[in-house]
Specification:
The complex is a heterodimer of chains A (about 450) and B (about 230). Chain A has helices spanning about 20-25, 45-50, 50-65, 80-85, 100-105, 115-125, 130-135, 135-155, 185-205, 240-250, 285-300, 330-335; strands at about 5-10, 30-35, 40, 70-75, 90-95, 175-180, 210-220, 225-230, 260-270, 305-310, 320, 370-385, 390-395, 400-410, 420-430, 435-440, 445-450. With about 450 residues, chain A is α+β, with helices and mostly antiparallel strands. In chain A, a hairpin with an 8-residue loop joins strand 10 (about 305-310) and strand 11. Chain B has a single domain, classed as 3-Layer(aba) Sandwich (Rossmann fold), CATH 3.40.50.300. Chain B has five helices and nine strands; from the N terminus they run H-E-H-E-H-E-H-E-H-E-E-E-E-E. Chain B has helices at about 15-25, 45-55, 75-80, 95-105, 125-135; strands at about 35-40, 60-65, 85-90, 110-120, 145-150, 160-170, 180-190, 210-220, 225-230. In chain B, helix 4 (about 95-105) runs parallel beside helix 5. Classes of the chains: A alpha+beta (about 450), B alpha/beta (about 230). At the A-B interface, helix 11, strand 10, strand 12, strand 14 and strand 15 of A face helix 1, helix 2, helix 3, strand 3 and helix 4 of B.
Chain lengths: ~450, ~230
């Protein structure tokens, strides 16, 4: 019979990292670190610590001795143990086979759900875990798919996955001792480079990269020279790491003879450049970061980014957002299967236009006529006849107008000091150029050219 | 025995038009410099937007757009079907050397499916810049396109497409009621695929001057936002 204990800190913000884990490891060999709480395998501990109330009291006292105030919940599954710890007082115990009953009155927000499913259940009026558990499974599967059924199994107290086992993470640290001492910078950099190569190889073998490096040089006079660097993107290339270390040490070299050099790498999960075999590769984060930095230096920081349509009817209301390459086919997966509830889960907000659903590669949108904008709009002199433009003169375009339609009058933001009003005309010049003219109430402008 | 059902396309559906554009967009060779040459209102920019839309929405990769004259209209780009989040827009403010430098940097950054350098009528472009760009994308999967108003003699572009205005399309007759689109012709002025490393692409040799597409570009921002008929 599986029994799980959940240790939940009363004030998680003040818990030192790893403190709760140490308490759990002192009582059970099988512990899972769930970040917000700690689960431990409580089965078979009666001989050591007594029944569950005694074990709970012992865990609470051990935590108090470490300066932590915790709640403890016991149940047959993790979710029920967590709910017991969260909603109970002090030490809460759910009897075997009582998980479903214990979960039933708990609010649905305690169930770990994808955002879309949580929104959908909320719209259905499902507020408690018990209400979700009582839904007909077949109907739930039809509407919410496998994700909905998985959530319902959790709500019914079923915990299909075994308890994870915590293991200490690998330490990525290398050290070199030099009995004769290093008096110049070059041999120090050489040894750091060799250590960086070994660290990068170890990181790469585990599919990791380093997003930070720290080094310590023990000096002959007993002092220490410490430094750290944080690359713009996680690195696994030793040559790049060595170059950065060299630059950092040249900027701030050790003040004395170096006896021992230690290099530590901070591991992080490296993002894949290609998510799957059929996906296209994305720009390498390292190359992209370097290229973006150079582009910013070339064109300026406010002239580069992903275009974004602003929530305004004002002509040319666009902005530049941060450019972050999205995951390939991210949208394609989102639209791959039609939603059983049409209209639900869609973004309602300030977007001016809804996002275009991705299409198959063999399909292309209907050909759309592009407008090339003048930024800022070019002042123009327009001759009118019977209220219609018949000739245009500007620094960019000039000629007789042979055809035109308008005015299309638009205005906005009259409730602010940035009120705007504009009449637009689409005109064809004698040389065939199609352009858009705008009159803002006082002057004419050339807004753009259709191309 | 079932009754065969034949369905006819809905009114306005022009399958040939779509297929033709699809074939045209598939012409641009990866790892090579291509050129789109077109004067004002010839449909050259519309052709670029169609290609950007195809690449970004089909999940084929990221697109970088070096906008030498700050002329890109994101609203038109979105209307063409492009995913704006997959587009890197570099505005160069009419500075030719900056635009060439930015395009060179992006062409050398692996991972972009398409790099566009929109020069329009900015110039003249030194021949060495073209050659440098061509070298930058060699042996990569990046499509590099330079959009110019006039073709430069000595350009090393493997594919040169020229666009020509056939005429605007208006709705209504006397008086006209609105602009509905533009009819233009795209033709292959040069297609040198024999120099490509892939042997399967040698079939393109000898097609120079062949290939001609007539495309109706439609104005999509109708009804216009927040408009009313003026006096």
């Amino acid at each position: 019979m599986t029994r799980v204990a959940c240790l939940l800190a009363e004030a998680p913000a003040v818990v030192p990292p790893g403190a709760l884990l140490q308490v759990a490891l002192a009582h059970s060999p099988r512990v899972e670190d769930a970040e917000t709480c700690i689960y431990l395998d409580a089965a078979g501990l009666e001989g050591l610590f007594g029944a569950e109330p005694e074990l709970g009291a012992r865990l609470r006292d051990a935590a108090l001795a470490a300066g932590l105030s915790i709640r403890v919940g016991f149940a047959s599954g993790r979710l029920a143990a967590l709910v017991a710890a969260r909603l109970g007082e002090g030490i809460a115990i759910v009897e075997p086979d009582g998980d479903a009953a214990a979960l039933a009155p708990a609010p649905l927000t305690l169930l770990p759900l994808p955002e879309e499913l949580a929104t959908r259940l909320e719209r259905w009026g499902i507020c408690t875990i018990g209400e979700l558990a009582a839904l007909p499974t077949a109907g739930l599967f039809e509407r919410a798919g496998a994700e909905g059924v998985r959530a319902q199994r959790l709500a019914r107290g079923e915990d299909p996955h075994p308890l994870g086992s915590w293991r200490p993470g690998p330490t990525f640290e290398e050290s070199v001792e030099c009995e004769w001492g290093l008096e110049t910078l070059e041999p120090v950099v050489e040894r750091l480079g060799a250590m960086a190569a070994r660290l990068c190889a170890r990181l790469g073998a585990r599919g990791l990269a380093a997003d930070g490096f720290e080094w310590t040089c023990r000096l002959a006079d007993g002092g220490a020279h410490k430094g750290a660097l944080t690359p713009a993107v996680p690195l696994t290339e030793s040559a790049a790491v060595t170059a950065l270390l060299r630059l950092a040490l040249e900027a701030r070299p050790p003040r004395g003879i170096v006896r021992t050099v230690t290099l530590r790498a901070r591991p992080t999960r490296a993002g894949a450049a290609q998510e799957s075999f059929t996906d296209p590769s994305r720009p390498s984060p390292r190359f992209l970061a370097a290229t973006m930095n150079r582009l910013v230096a070339l064109v300026g920081p406010d002239r580069i980014g992903a275009p974004a349509l602003l929530d305004s009817h004002r002509p040319d209301a666009v902005g530049l957002g941060a450019y972050a390459p999205p995951s390939p086919r991210r949208g394609a997966h989102a639209f791959a299967s039609p939603s059983p509830l049409r209209g639900e889960g869609r973004v309602r907000g300030p977007r001016r236009r809804p996002p275009n659903p991705p299409r198959d590669a063999s399909v292309v949108a209907a050909p759309v006529l592009a407008l090339r904008r003048f930024r800022p709009p070019v002042p123009a002199a327009v001759t009118l006849a019977s209220g219609r433009p018949v000739a245009l003169r500007s620094s960019r375009l000039a000629g007789r107008i042979v055809a035109g339609v308008g005015p299309w009058r638009a205005s906005g933001e009259w409730w602010t000091t940035r009120v705007w009003l504009q009449d637009e005309w689409d005109v064809e010049l004698a040389d065939g150029t199609l352009c858009r003219l705008a009159h803002d109430g006082s002057a004419w402008h050339l807004a753009g050219i259709y191309d | 025995m079932g009754v065969p059902i034949e369905s006819s396309p809905p009114p306005g559906w022009e399958r040939e038009r779509i297929d033709g554009l699809l074939g045209l967009l598939g012409l641009f060779p990866p790892g090579r410099l291509s050129e789109i040459v077109g004067s004002r209102s010839s449909g050259a920019s519309s052709l670029l937007l169609a290609l950007i839309a195809r690449i970004t929405t089909a999940g084929d990769g990221q697109v970088a757009f070096v906008d030498a004259t700050d002329a890109l209209d994101p609203a038109s780009t979105a209307a063409a079907g492009a995913d704006l989040s997959a587009l890197l827009w570099v505005r160069c403010g009419g500075r030719l050397r900056v635009a060439l430098g930015a395009a060179d940097l992006l062409a050398r950054c692996p991972g972009f499916a398409l790099v566009v350098l929109d020069l329009d009528d900015l110039g003249p472009v030194p021949a060495s810049a073209y050659i440098r760009l061509q070298r930058a994308v060699e042996d990569t999967d990046t499509i590099l396109i330079v959009r110019v108003a006039r073709h430069r003699e000595g350009s090393p572009a493997s594919l040169v497409l020229t666009t020509r205005r056939l005429g605007p399309q208006w709705m209504g007759v006397r008086p006209l009621t609105r602009l509905s689109g533009l009819r233009s012709e795209v033709s292959i002025a040069r297609l040198r695929l024999s120099t490509l490393s892939s042997p399967g692409r040698d079939q393109g040799e000898g097609r120079e001057g062949e290939g001609r597409w007539t495309i109706n570009w439609t104005l999509e921002d109708w009804p216009r936002d927040n408009w009313s008929i003026g006096a």
